[in-house]
Design brief:
173 residues, alpha/beta, five-stranded parallel beta sheet, 8 helices, 5 strands, globular, binds adenosine-5'-diphosphate, binds magnesium ion
Length: 173
């Protein structure tokens, strides 16, 4: 298999952590659309949102997604990349899409425990658990729709990588 692999899921689901480990296991490149945008613009996600709003950020994110997509590459996407139908269609056509699925409590716990890994401003300014419940309610159907494979993201990173390697041997859904 040479196709790009896209990691989707909410903030804290492990797209960066698991995506990196998966790339190492497969001998693939790893790339993170947020990091790519930071490197190419010199601005953090928070800076872009402050200057251009979420609309500007989403436009840049769609461009970044296309720019980083290549064979033998694991792409960690931003949590909201699935909001754009264009991005969902692009990912489904270009490669295999993995949804890292975890309950809001797990996501909130991880984001509280490791706030520096969160990188993004909160979307609503609400308490993190409430925000994650709302984010999942709004996006769960989109994550499910775009995913070729849905994985339990509450397992350890090593277990998730092994599970992804198993599903990649099967036909996409
Ligand atoms: P994302 O890129 O999806 O926002 P990260 O990979 O940055 O998520 O993970 C968020 C935090 O949760 C990090 O501190 C990471 O170490 C931790 N984490 C990620 N995946 C797991 C996991 N499967 N089990 C335990 N902790 C995890
Ligand atoms: Mg990440």
């Amino acid at each position: 298999m040479t196709q790009p692999i896209f990691m989707v899921g909410a903030r804290g689901a492990g797209k960066t952590t698991v995506g990196n480990a998966l790339a190492r296991a497969l001998g693939y490149q790893f790339t993170d659309t947020d990091v790519f945008m930071q490197q190419t613009t010199g601005l953090s996600v928070a800076d872009v949102v402050a200057r251009e709003g979420w609309v500007g950020f989403r436009r840049r994110e769609s461009d970044a997604l296309k720019a980083v997509t290549a064979p033998h590459t694991v792409v960690a996407t931003g949590g909201g990349a699935v909001l754009a139908a264009e991005n969902r269609a692009f990912m489904r056509d270009a490669g295999r899409v993995i949804y890292l699925r975890a309950p809001a409590t797990t996501l909130a716990h991880r984001l509280e425990e490791y706030p520096l890994d969160a990188q993004r401003p909160t979307l609503t300014g609400k308490p993190i658990n409430e925000e994650m419940v709302e984010v999942l309610a709004a996006r769960e159907a989109l994550y499910q729709e775009v995913a070729h494979h849905v994985l339990d993201a509450t397992a350890s990173p090593a277990e998730i990588v092994a599970a992804i390697q198993r599903v990649l041997q099967t036909e996409p859904i």
